[in-house]
Request: fold
Amino acid sequence: MVDTRVTLSGITLDNPVIPASGTFGYGYEFAELYDINCLGSLSCKGTTRAPRFGNPTPRIAEASAGLLNAVGLQNPGVDQVIAQELPRLRQVFHKPMMANVSGFSIDEYAETCALLDREDQVGWLEVNISCPNVHGGGMAFGSDPQAAAAVTRAVKAVTKKPVYMKLSPNVTDIAAVARACEDAGADGVSLINTLLAMRIDLKRRKPLLANETGGLSGPALLPLAVRMVYQVYQAVDIPIIGMGGVSSAEDVLELMLAGATAVEVGAANLVDPFACRDIVAALPRTMEQYGIHSLREIIGGAHYG
Amino acid sequence: MTQGLYRVEYNRQLIPGVWELCLSGDTAAVTAPGQFCNIRLEGFFLRRPLSICDWDAQSLTLIYKVVGRGTAALSAVEPGQDLDLLCGLGNGFDVSKCGRRTLVIGGGAGTPPMYGLAKALLAAGKAPAAILGFNKKEEIFCEEKFRALGIPTTVATVDGSCGVKGFVTDALPADYDYFCACGPLPMLRAVYDAAPTSGLLSFEERMGCGFGACMGCSCRTKYGHKRICKDGPVLEKEEIIW
Reply:
C-alpha cells in the first residue's frame, strides 16, 4: 500500500490533487459526474468582494497545447458565495476546501478574506495576486514583492486560516515575490497562475479575445511550472502548491519532486471533466511504478542526493 | 451529460463545406432538441461543440460547416473511428413552451438543430412550419429533410437565387403563435425584432469546457448572468439583452 497523503499547514489531504480555481466552478457541475470527495481538496472560483460579470466575450481562445482565457473573475461576490455557493458545495463535498480570493485593493482582499474566515468548510485561503485578466488589480499585486507582501500582511491580520499566496509567472524573479510573501507571514504559496498571452484572428486582423490579452494555461506550461516551483522551493521554507499544465499522475509527481506539497489541476478539467478523478486513481500505481511508498518523501526530492 | 466513445457510422459531404456525421453510442443524455455535444479531436486542445441535428436511442446525427481547422479535421474522420464526446450538453428547446403553430427558423449553419426540434414538435402533436435562410442556392442544405417531415417549409436566399429573396424575416408568415430560431447573431436579432410572438433563440459562443465550469461563454440576461453552454444555448426572447 502506498501513502498518498500530504499535509498543508496542519490539514492532511488524502491525496495532493486539487482542482484549480476557475476550472471547477464551485464543484457541483463535477459532482453530477462523480463523487468529488475522491479529491484532496478543491479551489473554488475566484471570489471578490462585489459580484462581477467579468470581461466581454470572446473570453476563450485555443493554443496548440492549451488555451487562453480572459474570463475576468466572473463571480457572484463573497456574500452570495457564503450564502449560496458554499452551502451547495457542502452537500457534495465533505472536506476542507480552498477559498480563492481576488481583489482590486488591499482593503478589498482583507474584507473578503475576513468574511470567508468565519466559514468552517474553508480550510485555506488562496489569495490570487496574479490574475492577468483584470485591470487595476490581480497581477499588479503579484508583480511587485512589496505589493505582494502588503496584501499578505493585510490578509494575515484578518484570518486564522492558513494563507496561500497565488503567484504570477509574469515576473522576472518569482522567487523574490515568494520570499516577500513568506517574510510577510504567508503560510504557503501556490504557483503558477496563467501566462499573459494573445492570439490574433487572421480574418479580422484583431486580437481574438475581447480583452485582447488572456492567460495561457494547459500542458504547454508544465515545464515552466516545474522550473518555477523548483526555484521557489530553494527560496522559501513554506509549502508550495504547484500547478501549470498538470494532466497526469506523472505530472503530479514531477511537480512534487520540484518542491510542491500539493498540486492543482486546471485546464485539464475543461477538456476532460474526469481528469482529476482519473489522476487520483492513477496515483498509487504510478507511485509503485517509480518505487515511491509515500508521497511526503518525494517533496522537493529533485533537490537532494 | 455523458462522456464516452462514439463510433463513426458515416461522415459525408452534403454540399461543399457542409458535412453530415452519424455516430453510434449512448444517447441517453440527450433530452431535448437544440442540445449539443463537444467533440475531442486529435491534435486540438479544446473540444469542438456541435449541435445535435437528430438522434435516436443508439445514434446521433450532426450536420456541421467547416469553418476552421478543427471542423476541417472532423471532416476527415472515417467510418469505424471512435470519437470522444461529451454528449447531451446545454438546455435545448423546451417543446412544452412552444405554441401549436410554432415557426422553426434556421439560418445557415444554425439550421441543423431546428430539424430535431421540428421532429419533436410533430411528436408532441404540434403543427410547426419551417423557414430556412441561406446566402444563395448553392449553400442550401437540410431543406429536403424538413420537407420529408411534411411540414410547410419556406426557403429564403439573400441573393434571391432560390425561394424568397431576402432574409428569413422577409419570409415570416402571418399565422404563427411562437417561434424558435438558431442562426447567426444578426439573424437572431432581426427575428427578435420582427416577431410579435414569444419565442426561443439559440446562441453560439466560443466555449472552454461546454459544461458550465469555466465561465468562458457567459452572457448577461434579464434573468441574471447565464452560461451559453450550460444555462443555454437556448434563451427565452423575454430575457435577452442585446
In short: Residues 59 and 71 of chain A are 5 Å apart (CA to CA).
